[in-house]
Amino acid sequence: MNAIAEFTIIPIGTGVSLAEYVAACQRVLEKTGLSYELHANGTNLEGEWDQVMHAIKSCHVKLHEMGVPRISTIIKIGTRTDREQTMAEKIAGVRAELEKG
Amino acid sequence: MNAIAEFTIIPIGTGVSLAEYVAACQRVLEKTGLSYELHANGTNLEGEWDQVMHAIKSCHVKLHEMGVPRISTIIKIGTRTDREQTMAEKIAGVRAELEKG
Amino acid sequence: MNAIAEFTIIPIGTGVSLAEYVAACQRVLEKTGLSYELHANGTNLEGEWDQVMHAIKSCHVKLHEMGVPRISTIIKIGTRTDREQTMAEKIAGVRAELEKG
Amino acid sequence: MNAIAEFTIIPIGTGVSLAEYVAACQRVLEKTGLSYELHANGTNLEGEWDQVMHAIKSCHVKLHEMGVPRISTIIKIGTRTDREQTMAEKIAGVRAELEKG
Q1: How far apart are CA D27 and CA D30, in angstroms?
Q2: Which residue in A35, A41, A13, A49 sits closest to A90, CA to CA?
Q3: Could you report the per-residue pLDDT of C62-71, keeping only the tens digit for each?
Q4: Radius of gyration for chain A, computed over Cα atoms and rounded to the nearest angstrom
Q5: Helix (H, G, I), strand (E, B), or coil: what is residue D51?
Q6: Quick one: CA dihedral D66, C3, D23, A56, positive or negative?
Q7: Exposed, middle or buried by CB within 10 Å (0-12, 13-18, 19+), for B34?
Q8: What's the pTM?
Q9: Is C15 in Cβ contact with A13 (below 8 Å)?
Q10: pLDDT for B55-75, tens place per residue?
């Protein structure tokens, strides 16, 4: 089952700057081979459900290894059976609508 | 890695009433043996990360089998290494603070 | 426009225990007169859209006053025009489906 | 109080394709004068808390006017008092960490 997902990982009980942890998580994602993209409020990724979820779990494991005592993560995950769809196609669909005026 | 989670599963491309699908998902959870609790905006559950995520995936599978063409789910998942904590303890901790006045 | 909502407020850059802040937020909600209910992963509330959003904003203001330097909040908010619905009715609808067996 | 936010608006009880509604919402945002950016799983925006929330509410109003009977929206909203920060700076902070290697 293919999925388009997004997650935002929030370290708790650390300092106020989180960039170090977000970067560590990006490196974890890089190794998964999944397609992913950082944005201002999270990271989008797509792939087989289990691979996507394993990638997010790996980020939790990594951050705990870095000493983060508590993590709260928000995930959005979408699946569909009517047709296949990529993240790029979702964006393209909206842009096409916008061009209709 | 133990986790406290919540998910809200939103069927897309069906009718406006979703109770039937939420109920089907509750039955899926019943079979998992995990501790879970329905509330007005989602379902809380706790357990081993992989079991929790497998339960949510099983809800997607079930709803697609029921004919739902597209599903969008929001998950919150928390892990901590400083101590073990249950959902009941989270609530109790806040209640204890409230009683301090 | 009436809304059923949920929010989870996550203080960043503080200690690992958040119960103190969740309790402070409950006290803020108590003063709003809105119907609300704490659960293990957030707080449900219902009312006029603007009142709901003002209540959540007031929690941010309160926590910043308490010294929390950074806050990340997740809100779910639902509106519908087909009929009025309360949080209790959402739960009741699922329970009715479950009883159908 | 300045905020960095993200929202994902999910029409319920309509067809399986949502691009039309996402596009309508982008047009609503265009009129607000706020800085916003569509991504594969939502839209990021930033500005004064009340303006951000009013923009999201305006999307609900617009979609209901288009005939959507029910809408479920997920919002992430962050505020901080330690320093000002833009969406671009959040991304830049992570990129700087990644370049450290």
Answers
A1: 5
A2: A35
A3: 999 999 999 9
A4: 15
A5: helix
A6: negative
A7: middle
A8: 0.98
A9: yes
A10: 999 999 999 999 999 999 999
